[in-house]
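Allow me, if you will, to draw on your knowledge of protein folds for a short while. I have a record of one protein: its chain in single-letter code and its fold written as discrete structure tokens. Could you please explain, in whatever detail you think fit, how the structure tokens follow from the sequence? The record follows directly beneath this note:
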Amino acid sequence: MKPKMTPSAAARALAKLTDQDFPTVDVDQEVDEAQAVRLVEAGRRAAGRPSLTAPGTHSPQITLRLPAQLDAGLANAAARTGRRRSELVREALDQYLARI
């Protein structure tokens, strides 16, 4: 199975983390509402892939359907290049939009 992130990308993402990204609470300690909100938000920020927009911000996401042949071609290209399908689609879309 291919890693989801290259070692250099992981190192860059980890370098941006601070102690604030990993709040902890003693299990015997009562948590007030503000602390609970902070913990939930920290969990949301830590979940999922790093933002493509800017650290700590949401990257918009779309879902699309592809014909089987196009999907197979995309999967093939991703396997040959060692890149994610989403990377290839973003790059192709960027190139297309630059031309129109």
